[in-house]
Amino acid sequence: MRADDRGKRSERSGPIPLKIVVAGGFGVGKTTLVQSVSEIAPLSTDEPITVASVGVDDLRAVPDKTTTTVALDFGRISVGDSLVLYLFGTPGQDRFWFVWDELVRGAVGAVVLVDLRRIADSFPAVDYFESRDLPFVVAVNAFPGADRFHPAAVHDALRLRADVPVVPMDARVRSSCLSTIIRLVEHALDRSNVVRFPRSFSR
Ligand SMILES: Nc1nc2c(ncn2[C@@H]2O[C@H](COP(=O)(O)OP(=O)(O)OP(=O)(O)O)[C@@H](O)[C@H]2O)c(=O)[nH]1
Ligand SMILES: [Mg+2]
């Protein structure tokens, strides 16, 4: 195949789709992240938190929280003409774990959000991606006290593999979320030894 034929082929086939999962414990900011970065109106499946949650979900750290994701969050980000990222946010409550296996199918990797006031809540998500050998980055979300710990200390506390990135993030700020997602894609590409992330993508 000649080089210009390859160009025509990629024109016809359109941008490469990449699936990214946004995971973590209950109320760590997964829906907020997807809503911050999506260029389309994000799909959200949040429902009011009901009395069934009492004694099950710990709302002390997020007292203003009135809804929870019951199926998934969905959003999209285009990266120039070459890539389109599809974001799938997981439900945070333990009773919706069964949805995770469907959501991660075909994903290049995951952003695991952590609220340092409740770091143990994100252990199951870390374990999940480690056990499936899926690339992930840990994003320390900007809840009160998040800046008191260096990423290296968080890395140690979560007993992460040496190459797993830990990044500070504010899920309410688009540029911050994009930096995290770029870090994930770079990490996934590093692990697969393929191409570099396009430089044309502005954060
Ligand atoms: N201070 C602060 N609050 C945040 C941040 N990110 C999210 N929040 C708030 O935290 C609460 C929980 O956010 P959600 O995005 O619903 O969390 P979630 O992980 O999707 O929750 P579940 O789907 O129920 O597991 C909301 O009240 C957000 O406004 C952040 O970076 N800093
Ligand atoms: Mg949610």
Give the secondary structure arrangement, pairings included.
Layout: H1 3-13, E1 16-24, H2 30-37, E2 43-48, E3 67-79, E4 83-89, H3 100-104, E5 109-114, H4 123-131, E6 136-141, H5 151-157, E7 166-169, H6 174-192
Parallel strand pairs: 1-4, 1-5, 5-6, 6-7
Antiparallel strand pairs: 2-3, 3-4
The structure holds guanosine-5'-triphosphate and magnesium ion.
Guanosine-5'-triphosphate (GTP) binds at residues 26-32, 62, 64-65, 68-69, 91-92, 141-143, 170-172.
Structure, described:
The protein is 29% helix and 25% strand. The protein is an alpha/beta fold and 203 residues long. It has helices spanning 3-13, 30-37, 100-104, 123-131, 151-157, 174-192, and strands at residues 16-24, 43-48, 67-79, 83-89, 109-114, 136-141, 166-169. The two termini are 35 Å apart. The chain has one domain: P-loop containing nucleotide triphosphate hydrolases (Rossmann fold, 3-Layer(aba) Sandwich), CATH 3.40.50.300. It is globular. It has 6 helices and 7 strands.
By secondary-structure content and strand pairing, the structural class works out as alpha/beta
Low-confidence stretches: none
User: Which strand order does the major sheet show?
Assistant: 2-3-4-1-5-6-7
Q: What is the approximate shape? A: globular
Helix content estimate? 25-40%
What is the mean pLDDT?
Answer: 86
- Estimate what percentage of residues fall within beta strands: 25-35%
Q: Give the biggest beta sheet.
A: 7 strands, mixed
Return the string of H and E elements.
HEHEEEHEHEHEH
CATH class: Alpha Beta
- The CATH architecture can be named as 3-Layer(aba) Sandwich
Provide a count of the helices: 6
Give Rg in angstroms. Answer: 17 Å
- How many domains in all? 1
In CATH terms, the superfamily is P-loop containing nucleotide triphosphate hydrolases
